[in-house]
Amino acid sequence: MDNYRGVRTALIVGAGVAGLTAATALAREGWQVEIVEVSPSRATSGWGLCLTGPSLRALAQLGLAEACLAEGHGMSEITHVDVDGETADRVPLRRLIGARRPAMVGIARPVLHRILHTEAERCGVVVHHGLTVTAVDQEAELVRVLLSDETERQAALVVGADGIRSSARGLLGLRTSLDYHGQMVWRALVRRPSWGTGIHHFAGKAHTAGLVPLSASQAYVFLTENGVEQGILPDAELVPRLARLLDPFPGRAAELAPLVSASGSVVRRPVRTHFLQGDWNRGSGVVIGDAAHAPAPQMASGAALAIEDGLVLAQELGRHESVGTGLKAFVRRRTQQCRTLVETSVAIAGLEQVQRHSEAHRLADACHRLMAEPA
What we know:
CATH architecture: 3-Layer(bba) Sandwich
Largest sheet: 8 strands, mixed
Strand order of the largest sheet: 6-5-14-15-16-13-17-20
Radius of gyration: 21 Å
Distance between the termini: 29 Å
CATH superfamily: FAD/NAD(P)-binding domain
Number of strands: 20
CATH topology: FAD/NAD(P)-binding domain
Number of domains: 1
Structural class: alpha+beta
Number of helices: 10
Shape: globular
C-alpha cells in the first residue's frame, strides 16, 4: 500500500501558507502536485504576520527568503514597554540566515501569499479555486478523493492544510477540540510611524497592544482584549471600539488610536488554539499547519510552524521508501516542537490576563530561543 516511488502524486487541501509551502517543496522533490482551495479566487484576505527566524531559515532553503526580505520589513529586536509607557527591555532575536540579515520579517499576508503562490506555480503545481474535498478513501496504494464538483482524484498522498477548522482533518478520521482562551485579538492596517522600525509590545492595565512594521509605509496594530466572550461585532463598531481600547495606553502607544481611526481597516478574531494529539496521519493522508497545531498569536509563530511543516514533510517523504513511513517520520520530527510552542502560547495568554507581563516576556524569549533550534 505504501510504495509510492512510481506514482508520486499529491493532492493538497488548502492554498494557504502551509499548503503552498508543502506544494513547492514536494514539487521540487519530483512530485506532481495539485491544490484544491475552497476560496473562489486567488486573492487572499488578512493584514500581516511575522516571519520569525525559523520560517526565514525554511524559506531560505526554498530560495524564497530574499523575496520576503525585499517586500517585507526586516527587524531584529522586540521592544517591551511597561504600563507606564516606559521601555522595559529590548530583546535581540537570533539571526538564523546570516549575521547581516534580519532576524525576522514583518510582511503583509497578501504579499507573502503572492510570493508563495507564484513559486508553487513556477514549480508546476496546479491550483484549483472554488473546490474542496468531500470524501477520502484509501484504496490500495492510492487515496481516492471526491471533490465538491463531484469529480474524483487519485493520489499517493493527501495533505490537509486547510486551517484550524480543517475539513480534511475530519475526513481523515482525526479529531481535536478548539479551545477559547478568553481573549479577542484586534488587528488594524495602519500607516507606519517613523519610530516603528521593529516590533513594539505595550503592556496595559487591562489589555496588551503592539505594532508590527510590514514595509516602508505600512504596519499593523494589534490589541489583545482580555476577559471577553467570543462574539461578532458589526463592522461599523470595529474602528471606534478599537480606538477606545487603545486610548488608555500612554507613551508612544498613544499614537496608535489616531492611526487606527485614520485607517478604518480593522478585524477582530477570537484566540483559539488546539494541538492534535497522537497521529497526524491516517493511511496516506496527513494534516499540517493550523490543521494539526494552532498556537495563540502571542508567539507570532503560527506561520513559522506551517512553513517548516511543508519543508519537513517533503524532506521526510524523500528519505523514506514509503508514504506511510515518511509520514510517521514527519510527525515524530515535528510533534515536540509544535506542542511546546502551542503550550507556551497558551501559558503566555494566561499570564497576560493577570497582567504578569514580565513573566510573559521571559517565557516568550525562552521559547523563541528554543524554536531557533533546527526543526
